[in-house]
Specification:
The complex is a heterodimer of chains A (556) and B (170).
Chain A: H1 6-28, H2 33-41, E1 45-47, E2 52-56, E3 62-64, H3 65-78, E4 82-85, E5 91-93, H4 101-110, E6 127-128, H5 143-153, E7 168-171, E8 185-191, E9 197-203, E10 215-222, H6 226-240, H7 251-258, H8 260-273, H9 276-279, H10 283-291, H11 306-314, H12 316-325, E11 326-328, E12 334-339, E13 350-352, H13 353-366, E14 370-373, E15 379-385, H14 389-398, E16 413-414, H15 429-438, H16 442-448, E17 453-456, E18 470-477, E19 480-487, E20 499-500, H17 510-524, H18 531-538, H19 541-554
Parallel strand pairs in A: 6-7, 7-8, 16-17, 17-18
Antiparallel strand pairs in A: 1-2, 2-5, 3-14, 4-5, 4-13, 8-9, 9-10, 11-12, 12-15, 14-15, 18-19, 19-20
Chain B: E1 3-5, E2 8-10, E3 15-16, E4 27-31, H1 35-41, E5 46-52, H2 57-60, E6 67-73, H3 81-91, E7 97-101, H4 109-114, E8 119-121, H5 124-129, H6 132-139, H7 157-169
Parallel strand pairs in B: 3-4, 4-5, 5-6, 6-7, 7-8
Antiparallel strand pairs in B: 1-2, 1-8
Classes of the chains: A alpha+beta (556), B alpha/beta (170).
């Protein structure tokens, strides 16, 4: 894992001191609320429905056990004993007091963490594949370049007052587990015809009220040109992006309005005019960072573990958990384990301080002290010996963290919704809970197979409903919550935006509606065909017809 | 309006004129559109031009020799286009004075300097709320930043690491 040097340390400490001074100046009236707002947002502080919310950056989703323990402590001392992992690999606390926030930032700095640029119209926390460094299909670990971008973009003097927020995701693998096409910039580490490693760049993806899939800006960018190219791209966006309407201010709208070819021409022209020597990162710098992400000291193990195999045969519940939650590792004898934060009836992505400590202890015992946060709001222990999996599963069970539903229908992505958020138009957590309860039976979930349900409580789409196989968007209609269902979205390599399949329905009809969609799939699927593949083959018509029955049934 | 630079409060020698009334003035600040008219009058005065933050760099570049100052207007502190425009002008080799005009806040002073501005011209109301000491402190809020600063000449953290490596190799 990356460790701060003296410069990183000084920067984060100075940032805390600067924010402390800003809070004081706000309280003294030196800063108006309008002036203070972007300053607090760029330190992760939102004003929510009931309280301030603090969003902590987990850069590229990598956490050390001591960091997770610190988060547990903060949750206990300053919140209500739990935190919420978000779809951008961050952690949110929902109940801190403004006057405590500088002290919380200090505690974070003690473990090399911060809240810098987790909100506001700036370059946000960079996200990455949660299986970075352990996935077999990876060309290179995406975290070193993500860390380089984190540093380069931190308090960037030119790009801290952009037209709108700007999100970057990086993957080093062929399978996209970082939803790069749903980001303002998606970076994919690729190899070109002559075997050189570089980046494929997508631009203009994003969800919100105008969902768009990122377009290819560059098929191959040499590695060492990245920061110059990003400077050119950000400058074009900063100068040309719309500022007349916040809903049209994301780079996706600029790309859409002038066209990808024109956008590319402008970026390339700016790029050509920049002094590469002054902007490119030193390759030795990337190498310095990459050294921190060297593989841990794995033991030489056989590819399979007899103890692990026999434990699966002896215990079908364990075997089912393994099937859903264990991911193949590139190192023989090891596995990556996803810890579901989607216990049936729980708020998706929430973890108590006790659970955080339990995970930190398990990471120390079984995973070289390392944890990952996924954009699906789960945690990962990336480096577990197969022979340890059974013991790990038992201990997870004691912490209430052994739900074997990763990738299944109850592994629901969900925003905080109207229970917390001041933007929300409807609740989302209770919808996730009611669907999870409906499909709780493990054997039924396994029979249905992989399905991603994503729920947003408003059009801003924090729950990524557009790219859910089944997307659920909570709106308000005539004072009532109304849920719009979309089908066919996909956040993976085959990124697609789901289509609306019928009129909005009330909250209590949502589980029945999902049930009807699943029934069509179960009736029509071919051998080995999962839900999204069947939707693609069948088209929306049979699902629309089934949904229409539910909508009629649910109509008041 | 109050003028501030890295040393603190500054006296503004430039007089804002419009409609060509420049007789007897040594420093004039005119809208970009009036530059040609002012030049036609001739004389030895220093000319500043004021440009909107939506100005395309190409309409100002190359900057004529007798333009000693370019003032970029920030319509609001949250509109960051002026930072990029300043960088474009500096990258193109403009070595005159760059002034940011508008309601920038103290916390942006470091950014403005880093992007190549020399000075800020802020509304009196804002200057009263945010005295010059706050501006000077805010400009030094970070001992080091990842990006180099154009004005202070301080190298960024990435550059410092590069220099440290180069030193280690000598």
């Amino acid at each position: 894992m990356y460790r701060y040097d003296e410069f990183d340390e000084a920067f984060v400490r100075d940032r805390v001191a600067a924010f402390r001074a800003q809070v004081e100046r706000r309280l003294s009236g030196s800063l108006t609320e309008d002036e203070f707002k972007p300053l607090r947002l760029k330190n992760g502080v939102y004003l929510q429905l009931h309280a301030y919310m603090l969003r902590i950056a987990v850069p590229y989703g990598t956490l050390a056990s001591r960091q997770l323990r610190q988060l547990a402590l903060i949750g206990e001392r300053y919140d209500r004993g739990y935190g919420h992992f978000t779809t951008r690999q961050n952690l949110q606390f929902n109940w801190p007091k403004l006057r405590d926030i500088p002290d919380i930032l200090e505690l974070l700095a003690d473990v090399e963490m911060h809240c810098i640029q987790t909100s506001g119209n700036c370059i946000r926390n960079v996200t990455a594949d949660p299986f970075a460094g352990v996935a077999a299909d990876e060309i290179e670990d995406p975290r070193p370049v993500a860390e380089l971008i984190r540093q380069w973009s931190s308090a960037h003097p030119e790009f801290d007052y952009l037209p709108r927020k700007f999100k970057i995701a990086v993957t080093g693998a062929n399978h996209d587990r970082a939803a790069i096409a749903a980001h303002d910039i998606g970076l994919q580490i690729v190899r070109n015809d002559i075997g050189a490693v570089g980046y494929r760049l997508l631009v203009g993806g994003g969800l919100g009220r105008t969902p768009m899939i990122g377009r290819e800006l560059r098929a191959f960018l040499p590695k060492n040109a990245l920061l110059t190219y990003l400077t050119a791209l950000m400058r074009v966006y900063n100068l040309e992006g719309r500022r007349d309407n916040k809903y049209k201010a994301r780079v996706k709208i600029l790309v859409h309005e002038i066209g990808i070819a024109e956008f590319r021409d402008r970026v390339e022209a700016e790029f050509a005019g920049l002094d590469r020597a002054a902007h490119d990162a030193d390759p030795a710098e990337l190498a310095r960072i990459a050294a921190y992400f060297a593989p841990p000291a794995y033991e030489k193990l056989p590819a399979t573990s007899p103890a692990f195999e026999s434990a699966q045969r002896a215990n079908p519940i364990f075997a089912a958990w393994v099937e859903a939650n264990v991911f193949a590792h590139r190192q023989p004898g090891y596995a990556a384990v996803t810890i579901s934060l989607k216990g049936i009836g729980d708020a998706p992505g929430d973890a108590t301080s006790a659970q955080m400590r339990a995970v930190a202890d398990l990471a120390d015992a079984h995973s070289f002290g390392e944890i990952r946060v996924t954009h699906a709001q789960n945690l990962v222990l990336p480096n577990v010996k197969q022979a340890d999996l059974f013991a790990l599963w038992r201990k997870l069970g004691e912490a209430g963290l052994a739900e074997g539903n990763v990738g299944l229908i109850t592994d629901i992505i969900c925003c905080p919704g109207l229970d917390y958020c001041s933007l929300a138009t409807a609740r989302s957590i209770p919808i996730a809970q009611s669907i999870a309860r409906r499909f709780a039976a493990p054997e039924r979930q396994r029979e249905i197979g992989p399905v991603s349900i994503k729920i947003s409580g408003c059009i801003n789409a924090c729950g990524h409903h557009h790219v859910g196989h089944i997307g659920i968007l909570g709106l308000e209609k005539r004072g009532e919550e109304s849920y719009q269902i979309t089908l066919g979205g996909d956040a993976s390599k085959n990124a697609a935006i789901g289509e609306i399949i019928g009129p909005g329905i009330p909250a209590d009809a949502v589980p029945d509606a999902v049930e009807r969609l699943v029934a069509v799939y179960l009736a029509e699927r071919q051998a080995g065909e999962d839900f999204i593949a069947a939707v693609r083959r069948l088209g929306l018509a049979p699902f629309r017809a089934a949904f229409a029955q539910e909508a009629r049934h649910a109509a008041p | 309006m109050p003028l501030r630079n890295i040393s603190g409060e500054a006296i503004d020698p430039y007089q804002r004129v419009a409609g060509g009334d420049i007789a007897g003035r040594s420093h004039v600040l005119v809208p970009l559109a009036e530059l040609d008219a002012v030049r036609a009058v001739g004389g030895n005065r220093l000319i500043g031009i004021e440009v909107a933050n939506t100005t395309k760099p190409g309409t100002v570049l190359p900057v004529p020799d007798h333009v000693a100052l370019i003032a970029i207007v920030f319509p609001s502190f949250s509109d960051g286009r002026g930072f990029s425009l300043a960088k474009c002008l500096r990258n193109a080799g403009f070595t005159g004075i760059l002034r940011a005009v508008g309601p920038l806040i103290a916390d942006q002073f470091g950014y403005a300097l880093a992007c190549g501005f020399d000075e800020v011209d802020i509304p009196a109301e804002l200057a009263a709320r945010q005295p010059v000491e706050i501006w000077l402190a805010a400009a030094q809020a970070y001992r080091l930043t990842y990006q180099a600063s154009h004005q202070t000449g301080a190298p960024g953290i990435l550059d410092r690491r590069r220099m440290a490596r180069a030193g280690a190799c000598l």
